[in-house]
Amino acid sequence: MTDATLLPVLNENNNRTYIAPFNPSAKISFYTRIHDFELVHDNDYWGSIRKITHPIGIEILLVAVHIQSKLYMIESEQAAISTRIALEIDKREQEQGHTHTIVMGDFNMNPFETGLVSADGFHAVMDKQIALKQSRTVSGEEKKYFYNPMWSRLGDDSEGCPGTYYHKSSKIVNHFWNMLDQVLLRPSLLAGFNRNNLKVIDRIDEVSLINNNGKISNQFSDHLPIMIKLEISQLVGDN
Asked: pTM surpassing 0.85?
């Protein structure tokens, strides 16, 4: 779907107008109601980094990722790409002078896989209290944490679907439901995060994204979308 097709739909009966900022990446498209949405870095291979300056909140780095799936990469290759992205994020955080960073998108990895949990990768932990320690020292180097709340959305006890992608195979190891689409938060943003404001979307108005067999309908996508809301006003003055 092109910008010209999608934007009128987004803006129908909407008082605040969505725009499509310059999207050089073939992998990522942004649609936003915030006009101060600056391109920081773009990479056709994995995604894009934008700087958002909200009029009533702090400056935020938004990192949108789309890592290739296991149809084209083995897990160790995905982990290597995660390391590259983590290094790029660290570089841009140093340039901007803060760590107000969100990473979200299609990682094509589960929260427990090496690229997500490795200290050389995203270093994303499931425990908020651990994340709030900011970092740990690994082999003599300080490694900053991300907090990964998507662990709480994986499995039957989660709210909504037990994952964002379903795959059934005859392999010996098969997870069936996978949490490939995730959002990671630096500890400095956790004051504005409420777990009730993180959702795996399985319905849009009257349209169900799940078929009668309880699996994802491929009418729109084979992945379910995710949504997060941050209380930006709670982060004013946070360093």
From this structure: yes
If one counts the domains in the chain, the total is: 1
Identify whether the C-beta of residue 90 lies closer than 8 Å to the C-beta of residue 50. Answer: no
CA–CA separation, 19 vs 37, rounded Å?
Answer: 10
| Residue 195, domain CATH | 3.60.10.10
Instruction: State how far the Cα of 189 lies from the Cα of 180, in Å rounded to an integer.
Output: 22
Q: What is the pLDDT of residues 110-140, one digit of tens each?
A: 999 999 999 999 999 999 999 999 999 999 9
φ, ψ of residue 152 in degrees (nearest 5): -75, -5
Q: Give residue 27's domain range.
A: 3-235
Of all residues in the chain, the percent with pLDDT exceeding 90 is 67
d(CA 105, CA 85): 13
Segments of 148-188 assigned E as strands: 165-167, 176-178, 181-185
Q: How far is CA 52 from each of CA 31, 35, 60, 118, 120, rounded to the nearest angstrom?
A: 13, 9, 5, 27, 26
How confident is the model at residue 1, as a pLDDT?
65
Residue 61 has a pLDDT of: 97
Residue 189 three-state SS: helix
User: d(Cα 235, Cα 239) in Å, to the nearest integer?
Assistant: 9
